[in-house]
């Protein structure tokens, strides 16, 4: 529900839309500020990115994105359609924190639409599936986005990852959990009530169970929720065509005792009725017994999005992007959403609080230690970098992610020759072993490895060259190990992170919706889409003395 009021401000008469009520989690359910249960009745809202093949993109993930929430004209064009659909939430997969989002966020808020926002960006802007770390670079990227969006009243949740974990690779889970821990602490520190979420790819029940349990467990054994996500999203495409209501019996049973809120972060299979999905799962998803277990979901997708030979889009833009045409899929979803009325039980007062149990044991379905990496320390990494003897020459322009990967592979291959190793810059989530420098960004880690090689090679000039990619620090006084002990007094510390230099200042939701002038909307291509694991940096594995360590 929205309320309108007219405010006279000085000479100007401005229309101000009262804030949307805050959505919070009590136990496993979501509640609106007045205590009524809240369900996500939403849609994915982001155009598919371009796939740019190259050394940085071994799995051909979308490489580009356009920030839909900075496209004022696009938002204005789509708002009537979103209203027709009757959604109360959208999910956006990537945003550019340097752009202005006031206009679009205010428009959505005015229409009663919340935003679930992924903090990740394509390629190196996400925790990597197979070579994961949780470092200052990603922490800073996430915080910059939070600082831009936390002022809006309609931010429902920030996702720390989308489909990072797969059945074959769950070793990134400790890094996601550390990200959830640090982002949660940061949100608390800026008085933001936004929830912290993760969107999981579907899979075998053993995989779903292990991942969902791990992300909401307490490794300390103290029954605390500080490393738990608030909102488990399942990208679920089980329901096909006019399926039987028993379709979801399996996942209902699996999640019957889940301890935090769960919803479908994507749904809408195209397999049985391509282009004319009946969306009959909506009636089942928003009714008992699903509502005892789940808090709604996000249909996929407003914009065209193709995957595995299917087209999931429901709205097509005209060639000049000025207008939009919707399809039968869209009409069907709108009519199913129109029939939904939210159940009101349990009341907030009688909702059980969450309990946070021990983390699941490692095994065939889970290669994730309960030992989490530390909170990345920006000033410590900057301090070490300033004291290193041999540094990577950061190219003035262009994407240097692949180069950093290649050079890291080179120096880690050379270090054993001088009795060194890359153990300090590596991290292994399965073993729960985190090198002392693994929390720093890839460039600082590379410079650290260069400096170890330089130091162990008796600082001969030729050992700090790497085909012109490395440069000697003329005022060098300390060895890399000394730099670390001077700059990083407690390398495994867990603490509340602060905003990096250059981030805009944070504002917790102030209770009024932001009415801004809006920045320049941009057209262009965009990324982030279903089943798209954003963020596979070119990476190299370094095996040292039988113990493999990974750094990108
Ligand atoms: C990704 O790589 C680009 C350059 O290649 C760099 O400017 C950016 O900071 C990196 N982002 C993260 C989160 O590491
Ligand atoms: C490396 O260590 C071994 C054994 O500790 C030693 O024999 C060898 O001389 C060392 N090599 C270098 C290059 O320091
Ligand atoms: C840096 O390293 C890459 C890869 O080894 C090499 O191709 C390049 O020529 C080097 N030099 C510079 C200045 O980039
Ligand atoms: C982070 O690093 C800075 C700079 O070395 C240091 O002063 C500070 O104590 C560190 N913070 C924590 C929590 O360890
Ligand atoms: C329309 O939008 C698309 C995707 O956002 C963009 O690639 C294209 O350049 C835009 N076209 C025009 C005419 O603005
Ligand atoms: C990480 O540690 C596990 C368990 O100790 C080990 O089996 C695995 O090979 C290591 N991973 C890498 C990439 O070295």
TrEMBL record:
Bilayer-spanning residue ranges: 534-551
Q: Which InterPro entries match?
A: GH (IPR017853), Glucanosyltransferase (IPR004886), X8 (IPR012946)
Transferase found in the keyword field: yes
For this UniProt record, give its keywords in alphabetical order, as a comma-separated list. Answer: Disulfide bond, Glycoprotein, GPI-anchor, Lipoprotein, Membrane, Signal, Transferase, Transmembrane, Transmembrane helix
Instruction: From the UniProt record, give one GO term of the biological process aspect.
Output: fungal-type cell wall (1->3)-beta-D-glucan biosynthetic process
Instruction: Provide the membrane topology annotation.
Output: Lipid-anchor; GPI-anchor
Role, per record: Splits internally a 1,3-beta-glucan molecule and transfers the newly generated reducing end (the donor) to the non-reducing end of another 1,3-beta-glucan molecule (the acceptor) forming a 1,3-beta linkage, resulting in the elongation of 1,3-beta-glucan chains in the cell wall.
This chain's protein is named 1,3-beta-glucanosyltransferase
Q: Which organism is it from?
A: Mycena albidolilacea
């Amino acid at each position: 529900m929205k309320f309108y009021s007219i405010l006279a401000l000085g000479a100007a008469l401005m229309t101000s839309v009262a804030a949307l009520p805050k959505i919070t989690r009590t136990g496993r359910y979501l509640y609106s500020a007045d205590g009524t249960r809240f369900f996500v009745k939403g849609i994915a809202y982001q155009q598919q990115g371009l796939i740019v093949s190259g050394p940085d993109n071994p799995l051909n993930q979308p490489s580009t994105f356009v920030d839909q929430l900075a496209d004022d004209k696009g938002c204005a064009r789509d708002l009537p359609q979103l209203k027709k659909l009757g959604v109360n939430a959208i999910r956006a997969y990537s945003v550019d924190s340097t752009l202005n989002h006031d206009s679009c966020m205010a428009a959505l808020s005015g229409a009663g639409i919340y935003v679930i926002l992924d903090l990740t960006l394509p390629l190196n802007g996400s925790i990597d599936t197979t070579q994961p770390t949780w470092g200052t670079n990603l922490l800073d990227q996430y915080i910059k986005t939070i600082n831009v969006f936390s002022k809006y009243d309609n931010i429902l949740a920030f996702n720390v990852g989308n489909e990072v974990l797969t059945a074959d690779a769950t070793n990134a889970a400790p890094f996601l959990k550390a990200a959830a821990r640090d982002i949660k602490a940061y949100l608390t520190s800026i008085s933001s009530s936004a929830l912290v979420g993760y969107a999981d790819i579907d899979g075998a029940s053993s995989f779903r169970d292990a991942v969902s349990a791990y992300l909401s467990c307490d490794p300390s054994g103290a029954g605390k929720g500080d490393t738990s996500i608030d909102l488990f999203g399942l990208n679920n495409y089980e329901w096909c065509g006019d399926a039987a209501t028993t379709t979801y019996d399996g996942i209902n049973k699996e999640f019957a005792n889940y301890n935090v809120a769960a919803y479908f972060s994507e749904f809408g299979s195209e397999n049985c009725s391509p282009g004319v999905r009946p969306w009959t799962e909506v009636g089942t998803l928003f009714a008992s017994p699903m509502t005892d277990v789940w808090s709604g979901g996000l249909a996929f997708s407003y914009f065209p999005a193709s995957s595995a030979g299917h087209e999931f889009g429901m709205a097509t833009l005209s060639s000049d992007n000025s207008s939009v045409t919707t399809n039968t899929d869209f009409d069907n979803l709108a009519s199913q959403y129109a029939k939904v009325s939210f159940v009101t039980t349990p009341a907030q007062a009688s909702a059980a609080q969450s309990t946070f149990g021990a983390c699941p044991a490692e095994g065939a379905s889970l290669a994730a230690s309960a030992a989490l990496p530390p909170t990345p320390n920006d000033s410590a990494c900057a301090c070490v970098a300033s004291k290193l003897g041999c540094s990577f020459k950061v190219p003035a322009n262009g994407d240097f992610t692949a180069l950093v990967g290649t050079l890291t592979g080179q120096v880690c291959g050379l270090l054993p020759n001088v009795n060194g190793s890359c153990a300090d810059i590596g991290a292994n989530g399965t073993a729960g072993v985190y090198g002392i420098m693994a929390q720093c960004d890839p460039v600082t880690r590379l410079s650290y490895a260069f400096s170890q090689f330089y130091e162990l090679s008796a600082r001969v000039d030729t050992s700090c060259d790497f085909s012109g990619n490395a440069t000697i620090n003329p005022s060098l006084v300390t060895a890399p190990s000394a730099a670390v002990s001077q700059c990083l007094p407690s390398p495994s510390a867990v603490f509340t992170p602060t905003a990096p230099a250059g981030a805009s200042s944070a504002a917790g939701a102030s209770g009024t919706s932001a009415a801004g002038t809006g920045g320049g909307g941009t057209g262009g291509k965009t990324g982030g889409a279903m089943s798209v694991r954003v963020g596979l940096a070119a990476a190299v594995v370094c095996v040292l003395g039988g113990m493999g360590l990974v750094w990108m």
